Amino acid sequence: MPIKRAAYKAIRADKKKHLRNISTKTTIKTLTKKVETNLKSKKKTDLEQSLKNLISALDKAAQKGIIHKKTASRTKSRMSKRVWQAIKK
Question: pLDDT tens across 31-71, in order?
Fold first, then answer.
């Protein structure tokens, strides 16, 4: 158990950060699944909008330090590539 008062405060702050991080990561996974389902249905407008939402969420998460910047960049690149290939066909 912590001895100092600041340690208790740090534990509370860590819990809040942990919940925020989990929430953000869950949102990213959900948006990724939406892009995947739209890839199968091949609706162009839905596909572009879902990709736009995913990219926005990834950028925000990377900016806040929830995921690494290069992880966000790699994910955006791969999804964009798949989406544009599907739109071309």
Answer: 999 999 999 988 888 999 999 999 999 999 999 999 999 99
What SS3 class is residue 50?
Answer: helix
Q: What is the pTM of this model?
A: 0.86
- Which structural domain, as residue segments, surrounds residue 31? 5-88
Triad 77, 78, 82: Cα angle to 5°: 115
Q: At 34, which CATH number?
A: 1.20.58.110
Is 35 within 8 Å of 16 (Cβ atoms)? no
20: Cβ contacts below 8 Å, ≥ 6 apart: 66
Q: Taking a C-beta distance cutoff of 8 angstroms, is the pair 24, 64 a contact?
A: yes
Number of separate domains in the chain: 1
Report how far residue 5's alpha carbon sits from residue 64's, in angstroms, rounded to the nearest whole number.
27
